[in-house]
Design a protein that fits this description.
Layout: E1 4-8, H1 14-23, E2 27-31, H2 39-43, E3 47-48, H3 52-55, E4 61-64, H4 69-77, H5 83-86, E5 91-94, H6 100-112, E6 116-119, E7 122-123, H7 126-130, E8 134-138, H8 142-153, E9 156-161, H9 168-196, H10 201-210, H11 216-227, H12 237-253, H13 259-273, H14 284-291
Parallel strand pairs: 1-2, 1-4, 2-3, 4-5, 5-6, 8-9
Antiparallel strand pairs: 7-8
Helix pairs in contact: 9-10, 9-11, 9-12, 9-14, 10-11, 12-13
């Protein structure tokens, strides 16, 4: 019989990831707060649960892909949470970008009920999720990681193990998102400098993306920033701000100064304050253009 897997959270990332589990031959039971988002997967063979509790099989495996710490805690331990039902030998895989401390707290909660927790945040936008091109970092108990690794391999192109600490993978994810945001700021500043000196933004970025910075972050985000095109929305600017808050909180806990992270936090906070929270996070470049007197008000 095909293994049954549960999936909670069918947003821009969750839906294509869940679909790849279906394609890999797993029986899938899904839950999303908005039932509309589950319809396509149900039409493709998934079963829909009314509440998180009903999505989970005792001793089974459940994925969560949710927007923040509070949302993950709610589906685990809230009124309709699955913590009690998952029970002995069950495994919860959290794909969300949440704080390392929240992952450690969730791991302790699961241990009280005989289940296990694996943190496995992902790198990649929705198109990468659909194409199984995600990169995954994961951490947690060895037994649980061995059990779920085939599932992780079914949704991405590579998995990187960061040991037993359930918060470790989240630290890696926050480091990565901080570096991506910083790279976007650098590209926005460099291309705005080029523009103010009479050069074509796209021409400059094309050269860098083929030579010194020939990798996806610079090629894909660089193209959007060069074209001042902030759609389609792969990752909302307000969620990037949430992640920078997590970066700074994590740094504070270990007394790690991160002045560049502070700058990025303020750049994103300004964008949200100006009503850009729902735009793609590359729209941070609009703030750079405004500072230089070049913003074209393309919102």
């Amino acid at each position: 019989m095909p293994q049954q897997v549960s999936f909670i959270g069918l947003g821009k990332m969750g839906e294509p990831i869940a679909r790849n589990l279906l394609k890999a031959g797993y029986e899938l039971r899904v839950y999303n707060r908005s039932t509309e988002k589950a319809k396509a997967l149900v039409a493709e063979g998934a079963q829909r649960a009314e509440v998180p509790f009903e999505a989970v099989e005792p001793g089974g495996v459940v994925f969560t892909m949710l927007s923040n710490d509070a949302a993950v805690k709610e589906v685990v331990a809230g009124e309709h949470g699955f913590l009690h039902r998952l029970g002995h030998e069950g495994v919860h895989i959290s794909l969300s970008t949440i704080s390392p401390e929240t992952s450690r707290e969730l791991a302790r909660l699961h241990a009280e009920y005989g289940s296990q927790y694996v943190a496995s945040p992902v790198f990649g936008r929705p198109d990468a999720a659909a194409a199984r091109k995600l990169w995954l970092c994961f951490s947690g108990p060895e037994e649980a990681k061995s059990r779920v690794r085939p599932l992780l391999e079914a949704i991405g192109q590579g998995c990187f193990d960061y040991g037993a600490d359930p918060g470790a993978a989240n630290v890696v994810k926050l480091c990565g998102n901080f570096m991506i945001a910083s790279a976007q700021e650098a590209m926005a500043e460099a291309l705005t400098l080029a523009e103010k000196n009479g050069l074509q933004r796209e021409q400059v970025m094309d050269m860098f993306a083929q030579t010194l910075f020939a990798c996806g972050i610079y090629q894909n985000y660089g193209k959007m920033i060069a074209q001042q095109r902030y759609e389609p929305v792969g990752f909302q600017l307000e969620l990037a701000l949430k992640d920078l808050n997590l970066v700074l909180d994590t740094a504070d806990q270990v007394r790690m100064p991160m002045p560049l992270a502070g700058l990025m936090h303020d750049r994103l906070l300004t964008g949200v304050a100006k009503g850009r929270g729902g735009m793609d996070w590359t729209a941070l470049a609009k703030g750079v253009a405004e500072d230089a007197g070049l913003d074209k008000e393309q919102e």
